[in-house]
Amino acid sequence: MKPRPFEYIRPDTVDEVLELLAEYGDDARILAGGQSLIPMLNLRLIEASVLIDISRLPALGDIADRGDAIEIGAAVTQNTLMNWPQLRQKLPLLAAALPFVGHFQTRNRGTVCGSIAHADPSSELPLSLALLGGAVVLRSKKGGERVVAAEAFQQDMLSTARGVEELIVAARFPVIEGKGMAFDEVARRHGDFAMVAVAAIADSRGAVQLGVGGLAGRPIVRPIAFTSAPMLSEQIKAWANDLEGYEDLHASAAMRRDIFKNLAPRVIEEAIRCAA
Amino acid sequence: MRRLKRDQKVRVALTLNGRKLSAEAEPRMLLTDFIRHALGATGTHVGCEHGVCGSCTVLIDGVAQRACLTLAVQTEGRDVRTVESLAAPDGTLNALQAAFRNNHALQCGFCTPGILMSFTDFLARNPHPTEAEIRDVLSGHLCRCTGYANIVEAIKEVAGVGASGAPDPSS
What we know:
Chain A has helices at 14-24, 37-42, 78-82, 87-90, 92-97, 104-107, 112-118, 124-132, 150-153, 229-243, 253-275, and strands at residues 7-10, 28-31, 50-53, 63-65, 69-73, 135-140, 144-149, 154-156, 159-160, 167-174, 180-186, 196-202, 207-213, 220-225. Chain A is α+β, with helices and mostly antiparallel strands. Chain A has 3 domains: 7-53, 2-Layer Sandwich (Uridine Diphospho-n-acetylenolpyruvylglucosamine Reductase, domain 2); 58-174, Uridine Diphospho-n-acetylenolpyruvylglucosamine Reductase, domain 3; 180-275, Enolase-like, domain 1. In chain A, the strands form 4 sheets. A 5-stranded antiparallel β-sheet of chain A has the order 4-5-10-6-7. A 4-stranded antiparallel β-sheet of chain A has the order 11-12-13-14, with helices on both faces.
């Protein structure tokens, strides 16, 4: 289908974007890569009076190494990050997760921050940001800049802490050294949103941070201690039952819990192996 | 700052397959419809219109992307290439197209223009991919006739990858 009519604005500076957001608030949508927004407009699942196109803003196109974190600007595409020469060394979790994000063709346009803004509950990048303990940098005309931790940013399915006048200017992914990281997911077809996605960070002694997408409205991260395989399986089972899961066209809640129970031990073992 | 009202028609000028062209578009016009209806280049096909099927994939500034997820007004001043750019002016197929023909990699041909454009970008970046990499890029396209096997064979042929994908230790 075709989208309903909207006003199209392509500002030249970030300040102009903030002016426009202050003027239009809720009526405006930010267009970065458009790989989630335009399908929703085409299918008329959402409506926007004004689209503010930030895809060509050079000020938002940087991958900046801040030492303890990598800051990824709002116009940086998923493939640009995937081809960043230092990715494997600085952000090994993202090196493992990005191949699952959409397809080669959509990663060419889709942005890292756009995926975080869209906040699908089983999406790979919000899960990675939550597991790493990252943050989202927001800016508005009135409020200036504020940094929101990932766990507070994504609140529920497709819902975030971004205020209507705020622009996501960047996402901050912490650099964590000396630990092993792994990511895996189960989807109906490669490139679809996952039914369940699991990511883990582990040290060689078996202290694990485990994150899961697809069992709640947002990614859930908890510590878990690996002592033995049967103990781990019990802990994961308890966790899965606690989270309940949700049902949609692709999978029942029970199926999601089952996938999690099978996938999590494998991801944890791989993370521990990478840490060794 | 470029600012266009809801129903405002503006002239969008771009380079399509090496020719500078322009036509009118309103903000909500998708690049697929702009290329096909306003510029008359109907080689680019429209399938799902939400980025899933891949049949509308074109190159924008050399990068493969979905024309149905692009607004025409976003391509102002850009270089757009579609399937019409691949064959020589006398109709001689390029190597990728010829490999598709040799391997019977299309039946109805609806999905083919998008697949050809994806691999035009991908093979330029990665001229000798593995079979797994080929299949990964192909996963961004839906084909309902060939079953994909012959498409993979065609791309392996043009990329000079052995019939078994990775080098065969027995050969």
